[in-house]
Amino acid sequence: MNGGGDSACGGGAAGALVSGGVRVDAVDVAGLCGEGLRARLGVLARAESRLAAMKADALGEIARRNGDGAAAHAATDAMAISGRRARGEVRDAVRLGGLNATREGLFAGSVPVGHAQLIARAAGDAPIDDEFLAARARHEGYDEFRRTVARHVADVSRDDGASLLERQRRARSAKIVTRSSDGMTVLNLVVDPVTGARLGTLIAAAERRLFKDEDPAARRTPQQRMADAISQLICDPGAKRPAGASLIVVADYDMANHQLTNGRLADGTPIPIGEIAKIAVDAEVLPAIFDAATGDLRMGRTRRTATDLQRAALALRDKGCVGCGISPERCQHHHIDHWQHGGHTDYTNLVTVCPDCHNDKIHQQGFTAEWDTPGSRYRLQPPTQPPNSSNDPSRAPPR
Length: 399
Known about the structure:
Layout: H1 34-66, H2 68-79, H3 83-96, H4 100-108, H5 113-123, H6 130-137, H7 142-157, H8 162-170, E1 173-178, E2 185-190, H9 193-213, H10 222-235, E3 249-254, E4 259-265, H11 273-282, H12 308-318, E5 332-335, E6 350-353, H13 355-364, E7 368-372, E8 377-381
Helix pairs in contact: 1-2, 1-3, 1-4, 2-3, 3-5, 4-6, 5-6, 5-7, 9-10
């Protein structure tokens, strides 16, 4: 695929970064091994980044010449996208014009498209350090980088993140639509990080309760279980609060000034210190203090599932799924040494994983949780060879 399609009036875009187009040759993916397929995805991701940079340049130039409205109209017509998406693309393109490090990373294929969008949107909230974020974007997964951006915006805003949180709350929205294709109802909800963490914690606890009551021979899919949990919480608000629904918040204590600082959710998303006090009034807050006085993090073979205390400790240690980085309230816990082979429900034998990574990567593909010493965290590592479905114990039902 070669970049092209320029009209006769001249297609060369201005700017020092322009140095050729994008070319990705077609290959027969059926003939690639697992490593080859992953390498192929990397090639495509780098090509997408370069294309995104070129698109941003074109939209930015139209906006510079004729205004943002004209650029959005052109995007709607030329790319056959909705007006709302077009306005968002133009907004990001205009901001990227002033973010040289991010733009260079996009052109080089080293900054993923989604990461660049996070940086562009953060630039509208605070005077960000473009070079710092672009450098982190090259090495962090999407969810980890999302938290990095949030922390950075809170740091440079110099207001403990209060203004950012207020802007996020004003941007909340919800929509309920019925799909004409199949008559199904679709709920779309956009909320601030604190509300999202509280909702996610409640939903995850309801999912665990549903899982416990299921027939092992007729399990719901994770998506079905989440849908049922949300429906149950909305339609039966008077039901007993699900066990394990405590919201985990963390703060450091400034000994010199005798005050809490650096308020954050368990996954590292910053929140104002004042918000912690508000949460404590109407929600159960579990202090993140783990020592001999707080309880035992070693349950051995006395129970199979993690305790509330273990879930809190694991959320702080892993900061979310060790496979993809999704927030800890959306996750479950995997026994490193499998339960059915004698593994214990101990803090040191548990890792945080989302349902998809747990079922697909670990139990279907044979990934294992390994300690990454340089990163001081667990990560999922692919198997050296594909698992044998006939005798591989990791293909056993999820725990």
